Amino acid sequence: MADDVAQSLKEMAQHRGLKLVKSRRRKPGTGDFGKFGLIDDKGKELIGFGSDGLLTATAEEIESYLRAGALSTWQQSARVTPEKLPTRARRASAPDDAEPAIRRRARRGAVPAPARVPASATTAPPSPEKASDKAALARKGQLPTPRAKPKLAIVRSEPVLALRPAKPSDAPAVAGLLSQLSRAGPDAKAVARNLANLRKAGGDMHLAEFGIIAGCIAWSVIATPHRGNIGRITVLVVDEAHRRRGFGAKLLGLAEAALGKKGCTAVEAMSDIDIRNSHNFFRAANFDQTSYRFARAIEKPAKASREKT
């Protein structure tokens, strides 16, 4: 039934030289489901278009608009159409060379006069020109050369950088970024597990998305007895194809603002000795090297062997 209504409205719009725009929503109650809009032959929006890009007109509103437009057009044509000419005026306006509907009967033995031929019929219609003749005249400049149709260029806009919290489904992409720091980086399952533990401990991770996930940053809150709460940047990596575009600086600013809200008085960054480019990045961001970092792995305790009895 809804398709019949839409088809009827479409035909009414075509008779008025307009085009009906129908919502693409197929699920009731979502977006502009069941709404319509009208545009003219130049693409100008006439009715049913909201500021948010959604359609707003119902089928009844579209029908009322089309019927009102048809009535106004009929009234305008009635005003400009001249009244019916009187009989004498019609006779006076008839051409002199018009052949009478009833011919007089010729006298017996008289030669009938030849039928009067209208002057317009004596001129032979122009013979159609061949395509080759038109091309030759165009080369001589006697015919205007048709304009070539302009080619439409497809312009693809560059994606916009977005900063958002990491989700468990982002674990494979984050694992790919971390592998650029170390070949033996964690897999996707380990990243998802570590992300959950990080948030339980009061930390967080955000991503830089630029068509793809182009970078990530993670931080934690370290409570110390002598310096209070310290914000620590535990990882910051930008994809090699998107470096030197300011993504790292935007991620760092986001983390510093989040740590400030948690009451941190300072922010420190952890950077491996082998990654020298990151050292220059933090120095350019007004970070001072205040200490050395020492680390070693914690060995798991050996299981006690049970003697067989």
TrEMBL record:
SUPFAM superfamilies: Acyl-CoA N-acyltransferases (Nat). Residues 161-307 form the N-acetyltransferase domain. Its EC number is 2.3.1.-. The keyword Phosphoprotein does not apply. Keywords: Acyltransferase, Transferase. InterPro entries: Acyl_CoA_acyltransferase, Bact_Acetyltransf, GNAT_dom. Residues 16-28 have a biased composition (Basic residues). The keyword rRNA processing does not apply. Residues 109-124 have a biased composition (Low complexity). Residues 16-35, 75-143 are annotated as: Disordered. GO terms for molecular function: acyltransferase activity. PANTHER family: AMINOALKYLPHOSPHONATE N-ACETYLTRANSFERASE-RELATED-RELATED (PTHR43877). This is GNAT family N-acetyltransferase.
